Amino acid sequence: MAVGAMIVAGFGFRRDASAASLRDAFDRARGDHPVSGLATAADKAGTAQFRALSAALDLPVCPVAPEALTPQATHTHSPRVAAARGTGSVAEATALAAAGPGARLLAPRMISADRMASCALAMSLPEGQTQ
């Protein structure tokens, strides 16, 4: 990984998802990447299960505003999510938005075994670098 780059784990999850669901999606997506922070839609960033994951991983949370989701180019597409959130994947869109301009997905979203949560990783560009 280039110096100055950071990796953000973005999450999409159902209201009834547990912290264990979020952790499972995270573990499936992370591989051996050193994650710097967690991101999700702003209306879910303060939920108990997301705060529990953040505390367990000792990683900061970046809430992503709804208007920041739509312009993100996602690799996967859920019609249900597109209708509700204006993006094909909340996990991918929040990871990209939180990682900043020019960020790229490391892999498409991974879904928890119970299908209640998804996680995707995005890497920011190192400071001063352009695509």
UniProtKB/TrEMBL annotation:
<dbReference type="GO" id="GO:0009236">
    <property type="term" value="P:cobalamin biosynthetic process"/>
</dbReference>
<protein>
    <submittedName>
        <fullName>Cobalt-precorrin 5A hydrolase</fullName>
    </submittedName>
</protein>
<feature type="domain" description="CobE/GbiG C-terminal">
    <location>
        <begin position="7"/>
        <end position="122"/>
    </location>
</feature>
<dbReference type="InterPro" id="IPR002750">
    <property type="entry name" value="CobE/GbiG_C"/>
</dbReference>
<dbReference type="Pfam" id="PF01890">
    <property type="entry name" value="CbiG_C"/>
</dbReference>
<dbReference type="InterPro" id="IPR036518">
    <property type="entry name" value="CobE/GbiG_C_sf"/>
</dbReference>
<dbReference type="GO" id="GO:0016787">
    <property type="term" value="F:hydrolase activity"/>
</dbReference>
<keyword id="KW-0378">Hydrolase</keyword>
